[in-house]
Amino acid sequence: MTKRIRYLLLSLGLFALVVSFQNCAKNGFPLSSPGSVDQASTLSSGGGETVVTTPGNAATVSSAPVNLCDGIPVTGKTLVNYSPLAKPAKGQTVIDPDFGVKITRVTDGLADWGAGVSIPAYPTAQAWNADESRFILYVTDARNSGAQTGYAMFDGTTYKFIKWLPINPPDIEQFYWSKTDPTRLVYIDNRESGGTIIMKMMAINVETGVQTVLHDFMPDIKAMG
Predict the structure, then answer these.
(1) φ, ψ for residue 215 (rounded to 5)?
(2) Average pLDDT, the chain
């Protein structure tokens, strides 16, 4: 588990940097299309806690091309040495001294749940739902007997914790938001219950909790002999 978390943290950090700055090279700056909404929010992790980073300039609706690199003090592909930055308190927003982006600390896993890690589940698992009104963090590394761990859902605007989702896929990243329905989450249910092996693809309405079986794989496996 330690190696997976270490890889996850590294991957998230590299992904955030690449997405934010790879297009701001010296040869030119990307321009948005007229009438587009220039909005970029990125979940990243560090020290077992989750933060949401947003460019210093707020999202705007533009009728003319907009320089997406405006407000970013560092552009290009030159390596940047990180300046010291103290961990903010939960809910506090600070400005990154090197890149000028806002960083908001979303969780305090130890204080909230007795857990040492609360992060996006995996680089390939989308944390945000279709309209960015909800996002999911994977909470793990229980530090005491009363610790809570699992899949925590948050408000995508206020970053407040909403509830735990009753899912437990065999691999932590095996859940998938619908691309069109912000309430629909698909996940794999593969476990043993009372001597019976369960292998199903499920869908859950994250607001109502109603679950639907999309496909039962056991008949397929039995048919294969």
Answers:
(1) -160, 135
(2) 79
What pLDDT score was predicted for residue 2?
Answer: 42
Contacts of 21 (CB under 8 A, 6+ apart): 72, 74, 75, 76, 77, 99
Is the pTM here over 0.85, yes or no?
Answer: no
Please count the residues of the chain.
225
Return d(Cα 152, Cα 163) in angstroms, integer: 6
| Rounded CA separation 32/182 (Å) | 26
